[in-house]
Task: structure prediction
Amino acid sequence: MSVLWLLTILLALAVAAFVAARGRALASAGGDASQLHSLPNYYGWNAALFVMVPAFLTLVVWLIAQPLIVGQRVQADIDPGAVAAGSSMSLFMSDVRRVADGLDTAVEAGVMSAADAAAQSDVEGLRATLGDVGVALGSDVSAETLRAAQAYRQMSRTGNVLQSGLVILLALAGMAYAVMRTSADFRARNVVERVILWLLIGAASIAILTTIGIVLSLVFNTVTFFGMYPASEFFFGTEWAPSFTGRGGASELGVVPLIWGTLYISIVALIVAVPIGLLAAIYLAEYASPAVRSFAKPCLEVLAGIPTIVYGLFALLTIGPFLVDVFGRDGALGLGWMSGGTAVMTAGLVMGIMLIPFVSSLSDDIINAVPQALRDGSYGLGATQSETIKQVILPAALPGIVGAILLAASRAIGETMIVVLGAGAAARLSLNPFEAMTTVTAKIVSQLTGDSDFASPEALVAFALGMTLFVITLGLNVLALYIVRKYREQYE
Amino acid sequence: MTDTAASPASRPRHALTAADARTRKRNAAEIRFKYLGLGAILIGLAFLVILVVSIIRAGTPAFTRTVVEVDYVLTQAQFEEAESAVLKTGIYTRFFSEFVAQQAQDQGIEAEITAASLERIMGKVGSDIRSYYRENPDDIGTPVTFQLTAASRVDGYINGSITRDGFVSSRFLETEDLDVIDALQAAGIITSGIDTTFFFGADSGVDNPGGAGIGVSVVGSFFMMLVVLVLSLPISVAASIYLEEFAPKNRWTDLIEVNISNLAAVPSIVFGILGLAVFIQFMHLPQSAPLVGGLVLTLMTLPTIIIATRASLKAVPPSIRDAALGVGASKMQTVFHHVLPLAAPGILTGTIIGLAQALGETAPLLLIGMVGFVARDYPGTFAGGFTEANSAMPAQIYTWASRADPGFYEKAWGGIIILLIFLLSMNILAIILRRRFERRW
Result:
């Protein structure tokens, strides 16, 4: 039974429970709703929640757990000798899953009966049959894989039957319990409100679960990676040259050139964004008339709402060629500094444009938070407006502005699309801003897209890179938020 | 003190109406500083204008395509001659080019139209014609209107991105072909029109930029947004209600608050890693499926919507709550019957803005396999829309941008225009809703 059907049945049972419990409550009060402890609908909701909540939670847990358990049991049955040399258990298991899916597709398409799929032992014939329904099997599918896939399907099917049975049983039990409990004196509203409160707490805790998920997925894979590749070489290696799996040769996976590229591009971006953003914020906060402000502020913020893929394409196809025209070999200045469109400058410049509204709106808020009394005092001493800004407001707002710049820096370090498209792919330690360099984020993308084996150090290094990125940006954010909060308290 | 007051002659005298050097300097600095600020704003706005102009200039050609339209007649004799030859399609091409040349000549236009240049202009025309007549042998001898898509470089010449000055002949298009194109255009054989394939079509192979369309990935994005909406709206409203109305001041609440503000600042690529590790490696959900994309984007969007929802819950004045509690409502009834409806417009606006953000997000989609996959078909069923492999608009744009054929760049820009139109309309909708329903207390 598919999950969609199961959910429909749950919903129907919940409606039935609602009607039944509401009717029972009213009947127990002799049809007079004022004799009830709660409003009649609460009795109905109580029953409906008892049907839905336990059954639904069980369903979710089951859906997550079943593939894991089935996978493990199938794996336990596989003879380790059947796994070809140079392959790994996880690759073998993914083959098993693919064959099992293929058998499902074939049964669904009607080219194979269910019994046939379970008893099939001819791998060659199967490859032809599955090819007809558009499932391609690799050449390394052996009889062992097929046998494991059939066991996998068998267990999954048993699991599905058990799951449907258990969920419906739970729903019925919940319905029976709630309806039986319904009487005029039952405090339905209190129970319903308690359940809802727990649901609210659960929803709020998803933020924590997400963080835990991020940390666990990074930590586990990073630990596996450091089991294959020495941590000291990762952190201090100055060479980034991953070999492609299966072609032999050791990979050099030093993070230093990537960090350098990341920092260099971020610095260029901040050199563009901070002066423009800060001056724009000062003008908007101190000089601009309300009409100018109400026009210019949203216009600048449009820059923040544009998706990063647009900036990436802008860097690759507009700014890159433009910079080559100016600084390239045959460029307007005849300098010959730049040989290709992708460079630190390209990515940094475009990222700077993206960060302008980020810096300006944060600084705008911070400048506006400086008390008017400080300004008035300065004017009273005869200072001009610009002198007040430079000598009173900016020093007062400095901690907040530093916080804003740190937040912008963390944005720049974590930015992906602009550097993937605009910065190039070559990892190198160089000072020339017109050369292509690459960043941590760009390498995460390039190591994890494509058909690489997830168990190889070349793929797992992406998780170590992700961990590095996560730690750096988290540190910057925490520091920035701390500074901003400290600063706000100062004037409240 | 009296000394100084008594000897005013020791201090320079100034007229109040004429500024002295120092005042002039200070005033000049004042003006300089003011214009510096104005300049910064103008630079920011100039970047915006440059961005918009370059998007529109580079993207609009993607919406049109150049069509070669010919009312062609193939005689039975020609059909037999071509079918008996060894290089069948070559013969068809020759017949076709002779026919086109004749047609141009009939209209008084002289140009040397060779089979080779026609092939460069519209691809392997012979095989198209042959396969048509083999399927419809009854049409031999009667006029048939052929609409053949011209090559992407011809497109470029027609819409002006390729000009005669600085044109370099290549095996794709030679200089004399430009004369042919001019002649055919004058004869009304080459026309340009709206490219419906781009709006409703699927992605094409790596060698055919002309046939690439964004329609399928729009559908992929739609299903992703459906997942995001269905999951993130209830979850974030529930979380905000708890944090704003019920949460006691304790460590657990603090932990949740810190987590939400940190999640809002986690780089989007890290969410992609999370999606890859948890949803694909651990739970074995299908790769490239809009369902997985939607789940990842939900986690990313939650902080945005939670922050907006909390702000609008906070904006509902306490007197509303007090009044409801005063007439005997429970805390839960107060929130769900009174506070939530009043906060609904703000929540809706925040949700739309969160969805718009999610719609343009690319980086996490790269890691869960939404690129490199060629989205060729619309999903078969509604449920299949969630689980069948598909692309999404930003991922499709990235795929096009990273292909070798520059013909795809135009498509990528065109895709960006479509994406921005979606984002713009969502944001405008949010602004209208805010204007229409916002209540100031």
